[in-house]
Design a protein that fits this description.
about 450 residues, globular, mainly alpha, 16 helices
Length: about 450
């Protein structure tokens, strides 16, 4: 769900930068109702089809997510996102967000209102999917609990920081209305300060965590941190309330504000040495500076989007401009192109890059704990607990089978770990070089610098 939320946020952010329609389209309210009804019907239909006979065979062969079920869920989520894009670009939902933003004199409320149709659609979709999750996982969660759980862990994790960033970056604009350069510099400083200092604390509250009591496991994790030179503020228990949700994370850019999070399902279902292997993987993201890689990719999005639109305008003069509201058929074309590029950049390019980053973190973990086979077994155990199909790729991860296979091959030939790391560096260098050449081309095309 995180990818779809990210794409929806990009649509809302793009809409916020466009001039709002002067009037609210009369067809907007009916279009909104049709959108929400269509999401409900699609969700109910996908749930009904999955529960009729197919789920029984799914449980018999031990695979929690088959390619067939994954495709069905993919298309329903895609429909939810596409319908939201049509509301924004074709029917001018931006006018509602602009009206709300005008009430506060800023864009924060406007962008939140821009996202409301998507959030409503996702909530409806999760509501219809609850019977499928209950049958598939047998977690015993009530419908409302299931909806809140997914929204908290896969939507709010992106939405909450966005809301805070929008609010704090508006402050300089109010303080220095006649000095846009100073306001922008101060906004950037506040945003960076929030991500470094307050962001990890916000995330640990969104995900509901508590400090892990002093015990042998915590001491072993602290010892592992000392061994790798990783500083962290505390080790936290991530209270999900789901025994079939085993996960871990390291949040924070600097040691003073960094936390290691271990879910209650992970602590309940994995052995201490397997938990150490999972922690080693998360530490690998810090040691290999993967957070910086993610920031580079995020900053590159605007450059590559501008390159794409400029190149498209050269070969197709009639394409709607990126930064002007079009509306109607032109608006749908504008939104379709923006969404297609965003999905390509984040879904395919970033997804492919992230899979290789995750593999590099796997190799780091194996080097830290000194046992490639242990890390492979821990991965397979995670797949079993989380009911992930052994051969199912996800947006940001290779399949469990492929990752475990890479670990076992690297155990036989340690040179592979260095090769995998070199692949990551090469891809990042190519990305940065492409962005630099793109900036030079864009500035030359705009007549900057003679």
């Amino acid at each position: 769900m995180l990818l779809w939320t990210l794409l929806a946020i990009l649509i809302a952010a793009h809409q916020a930068g466009l001039d709002a329609p002067k009037e609210i389209a009369p067809a907007l309210a009916p279009a909104l109702l049709v959108y929400l009804a269509s999401v409900y019907i699609a969700g109910r239909l996908s749930t009904t089809l999955s529960l009729k006979g197919f789920l029984r065979s799914l449980k018999d062969d031990g695979q929690a997510l088959s390619h067939r079920l994954a495709r069905r869920m993919f298309f329903v989520k895609a429909w939810t996102l596409l319908g939201y894009a049509v509301l924004c670009y074709g029917f001018g939902w931006r006018s509602i967000g602009a009206s709300a933003g005008a009430l506060t004199g800023g864009i924060a409320l406007g962008e939140i209102v821009n996202l409301l149709p998507f959030l409503a659609g996702i909530t409806i979709l999760l509501w219809t999917w609850h019977p499928l999750d209950a049958e598939l996982r047998g977690s015993g969660m009530r419908r409302a609990q299931f909806v809140v759980f997914v929204l908290r862990h896969e939507v709010a994790v992106a939405l909450a920081p966005l809301v805070v960033l929008l609010i704090i970056t508006e402050i300089p604009e109010k303080l220095f209305p006649d000095s846009p350069g100073m306001a922008q510099a101060l906004s950037l400083a506040l945003a960076l300060g929030f991500m470094i200092v307050a962001g990890p604390g916000l995330l640990r509250r969104v995900w509901r965590t508590r400090p892990m009591p002093d015990c042998a496991l915590k001491q072993s994790i602290v010892a592992l941190c000392s061994k790798t030179g990783l500083r962290c503020r505390d080790v936290l228990i991530w209270e999900t309330g789901k025994a079939d949700y085993a996960n871990a994370a390291v949040v924070g850019f600097v040691g003073r504000y960094r936390y290691i999070l271990l879910s209650d399902g992970l602590l309940a279902r994995l052995e201490p040495d397997e938990i150490a292997a999972v922690c080693g993987h998360e530490m690998g993201h810090i040691a290999r500076r993967h957070m910086i890689f993610y920031m580079v990719f995020a900053l590159g999005f605007a450059v590559y989007l501008a390159m794409f639109w400029t190149a498209l305008a050269h070969v197709w003069p009639g394409v709607p401009p990126l930064d002007d509201f079009a509306g109607g058929a032109d608006g749908l074309l504008q939104g379709g192109l923006f969404l297609a590029f965003s999905a390509f950049y984040w879904g395919l390019l970033f997804g492919g890059f992230s899979r290789r980053i995750e593999r590099e973190a796997d190799m780091y973990a194996a080097g830290v704990v000194g046992d490639y086979e242990l890390c492979a077994r821990a991965l397979e155990k995670l797949g079993e607990v989380n009911r992930i199909g052994r051969y199912a790729d996800s947006w940001r991860h290779y399949s469990i089978a492929r990752r475990a296979g890479c670990l076992r091959m690297a155990g036989r030939d340690p040179r592979l770990a260095a090769i995998y790391s070199q692949v990551v560096i090469s891809l990042l260098a190519a990305h940065v070089l492409g962005a630099a050449l793109g900036v030079a081309w864009l500035f030359d095309g705009f007549g900057v610098g003679g």
